[in-house]
Amino acid sequence: MDRFRMIFQYFQSNSESVMNGICGLLALASVKMYTCFDFSCPCLPWYNMAYGLGIMFVPPIALFLCGLILNRQSLVMLEEWRRPQGHRKKDLAVIRYMCSSIMQRAMVAPVIWIVVTLLDGKCLICAFSSSVDPKKFVGFANASLEQVQQLLAKVPCKEDELMRNNTSRKAVSRYLRCWSQALGWSILLLFIAAAFLARWLRPCFNQATLLQARHWSNYIDIEQKIFEETCCEHSRLFAHKCILHFFESMWQEIKLQSFSLPREEEGVEREEDLLRGIRHQDQVNKLLKMWYYEKPPLDVGQVTQRHLLGRERSPPPWADSPGTRSKFPQHTDV
Amino acid sequence: MDKFRMIFQFLQSNQESFMNGICGIMALASAQMYSAFDFNCPCLPRYNLVYGLGILLVPPFILFLLGFVLNNNISMLAEEWRRPQGQRGKDRAVLRYMFCSMAQRAMIAPVVWVSVTLLDGKCITCAFCTSVPVEILGNTSHPSLSQGEMKQVLARIPCKEIYDGQELIANEVAIRYLRCISQALGWCFVLLMTTLAFLVRALRPCFTQAAFLKSRYWSHYIDIERKLFDETCAEHARSFAKVCIQQFFEGMSTDLAAARCHPPRKAPADAGEATEKLLGITDQGTMNMALKSWHRCKPPLHLHPPALPSGNGWAGEGQPPVHPPLPRRETAAYYSRV
């Protein structure tokens, strides 16, 4: 149990690891989406290329944008970039660092999609089956140009009646898949080599600047989180005071209407405190009605003052004479 | 068990992450509902379009409304919108912020449904099978049929078992064509939605950051204030009920003592807490009468002022009366004890 809580807290506390977690989830989602997706090549001359290349490139763009959207730091970076300078200078190195780390994480899922697509081969076979040289394949060498186009376009569809037992179809298919897989593995190797070099060579260049940029980007992130938490805490206290003020002003009004109520004594029961002088059904109904029809103003300055001076039950300023007493308590700006 | 409680607490503590959780669950439910749904194209000329487009568009609308219904903040938004102005001004920006954030979350499940439907292809195949370009895909040497007959034949494309137009246009060719169009539409839709979401998120810090911070603060404030008010009212109701019931029992015991024409038994000084808690009702008959009275004639929602403690320093006054005056059943205001 403790271990679980520790892991949870660790993931929460460190925003970098949260982002890594999201990055990993997107990558898994990308693979899962590809396997669930029912690829069906149209097997028509111009449609093949559009479909094949579309499936290869459109989902990665969507995944890239998803990676940017789900990453909280992209918002932090944009805010830092667009904020007015004010009293705090802007450090472009920090913004660049944040931008590059966001882009790197967002690129993982699209690259995985492209690599999986190429290693599977269906997309490339669909897109480029009409573009192979028919003379290399026995079955297609002797047909007319138009016929060849039609036949080649049908290569990705194994179940088509024209292609069912065509050995040349299998040859074209194998040829294209070979190219596709070679391309896939090359891209994978290229990316991993690039990532390796970037990590290895980074300490050789500008390590001090990098440390500074990383520190300050972390700082900006934490500062924003703490600001949001502080605002939440503040709004809770504000609401608490506002509601207490509202109940007290109801209590004051009730006391004014019933002149003989004795002053509050020390050691009164706790229940009476909680009742705050509201002891009738009508009073409760009036309180609830007033809460709806006339919410108290967002101003707790008076309450704080009164609390600072001590809890004496002095009548509020508007209750000096019955003539000036209004139906509902007004708030006075001090 | 503890693990679930912790996860639950985490989700609950942070209102935003709770709403995100519900959002995610609805998206998964939407995908699951689609896969569980048994799609059955009617394979009749006009019914196909209605059925296909209906399955594509009606469930997302229902899911959108459900997204609003499941969102706790909808009643908060409605309350804030309809409340009379009173002493507190209304900020339209806050209302807009609350509505936008709810609408964004409610949009996710419908978008997932539409995407999954388009990527699967069955709906579009069913809806538009009568619009397949026969002159491009079909057999041009086939004798031409009338418009109505052609539509009848094409309408059966999704139903492979009863399709009888193989010479006109091959079933697989038509289905592949339609599915390709459907999937292209699906991916374009996904890209469009993702781009829109990205723009909405990215452009906000560039234009309206200060206004956004203000709206977010005050919308949280309204939510917290409502919850605290409910808690305070609940606390008050509890105390009210406790005092009301206490006074009821005291009243019963006094009434019965008066009916028997002797003063109520004063609890001896060293009787202890248990005797105090008996509230003067110490025998079966009295208790039964108290229970009957509680059922037949509940006390009014009107508490008497608190009893003053003895020795309160009122010099020169006599002792307060030995037994408290009979409780009035009518809704009088206060009565003086002096």
Automatic annotation (TrEMBL), chain B:
Transmembrane segments: 21-37, 49-70, 184-203
Superkingdom of this protein's organism: Eukaryota
One GO CC term, this protein: plasma membrane
GO biological process, one term: ATP export
Places the protein is found: Membrane
Keyword annotations of the record: Ion channel, Ion transport, Membrane, Transmembrane, Transmembrane helix, Transport
Region of interest called Disordered, as start-end residue ranges on this chain: 312-338
Main subcellular location: membrane
Cited InterPro entries: CALHM
Membrane topology: Multi-pass membrane protein
GO molecular function annotation: monoatomic cation channel activity
PANTHER family: CALCIUM HOMEOSTASIS MODULATOR PROTEIN, CALCIUM HOMEOSTASIS MODULATOR PROTEIN 1
Family from the record: Belongs to the CALHM family.
The name this protein goes by in its record: Calcium homeostasis modulator protein 1
Species the sequence originates in: Nipponia nippon
